[in-house]
Automatic annotation (TrEMBL):
Residues 222-231 have a biased composition (Basic residues). This is Transposase. Residues 9-124 form the Transposase IS200-like domain. It comes from the Bacteria. Residues 211-231 are annotated as: Disordered. It comes from Uliginosibacterium aquaticum. Transmembrane segments: none annotated. The lineage of its organism: Bacteria, Pseudomonadati, Pseudomonadota, Betaproteobacteria, Rhodocyclales.
Length: 231
């Protein structure tokens, strides 16, 4: 059975997951984290991809991006993966693959899911027990969104700007969003979409101009029902 192409809808954000092979660590120390961020910034700029949120965990990375065209996300991830793996292998005297196959991704309906996905990403260290609070974890975009430290990697999405008329209002609203936590059903929906590649949310009603490159949801399981005979 042929593999479905990665879902793409023009102008809509995507959630990307890149995991270490066999869940092995891909960042062994602070220098590794810093180098990945450097390669990420370069790859995103070269591919024209806007990065809205991210977190780098010891064995995986989550990115929230908006690519300018269908091939841009793959272009960015190819550049990023190739450069970081070469650097990582040279530094740690190893060879072979580092990542667990292809990166995973899904399209996000931004009105209802963009900030939810950003919160999901930035609360990852808290859920995994790597930090006492999201803002104390140094390898994510959380401190940027809370106004604690500007991050040159980040291009704020319009949904973040809609949180308030001033930076203080936006940062306070985003902090409240983080402190409310991620509901379990929201957590399950994001994880399912990210790992399976199906759209998170639904297309807006006024979306006649949007043209997905493939179906948005899985086909029903089982054989299709036969039509009853007429007469």
């Amino acid at each position: 059975m042929s593999r479905l192409p990665r879902l793409y809808i023009s102008g809509m954000p995507q959630l990307v997951l890149q995991r270490g092979n066999n869940r092995a660590p891909v960042f062994l120390d602070e220098t590794d984290f810093q180098q990945y961020r450097l390669h990420l910034r370069e790859a995103a700029r070269e591919a024209g991809v806007a990065l809205h949120a991210y977190v780098l965990m010891p064995d995986h990375a989550h990115l929230l991006i908006t690519p300018p065209d269908e091939g841009a996300a793959g272009n960015m991830m190819q550049r990023l993966g190739r450069r970081y793996v070469r650097w990582f292998n040279d530094r740690h005297l190893r060879s072979g693959t580092l990542w667990e196959g292809r990166y995973r991704s899904t399209v996000i309906e931004p009105m209802h899911w963009l900030l939810a996905a950003s919160r999901y990403i930035e609360l990852n260290p808290l859920r995994a027990g790597h930090a006492a609070s999201a803002e104390h974890y140094p390898w994510s975009s959380c401190r940027h969104h809370l106004g604690l430290e500007p991050d040159p990697l980040i291009t704020d999405h319009a949904r973040y700007w809609a949180l308030g008329n001033t930076p203080f209002e936006r940062q306070a609203a985003y902090r409240a969003l983080l402190e409310s936590g991620t509901p379990l059903d929201e957590l399950d929906a994001i994880r399912y979409a990210a790992n399976r590649g199906w759209m998170l949310g639904e297309l807006p009603l006024a979306s006649g101009e949007l043209s997905p490159n493939r179906r948005l949801t899985p086909l029903p399981k089982g054989r299709p029902r036969k039509k009853p005979l007429e007469g």
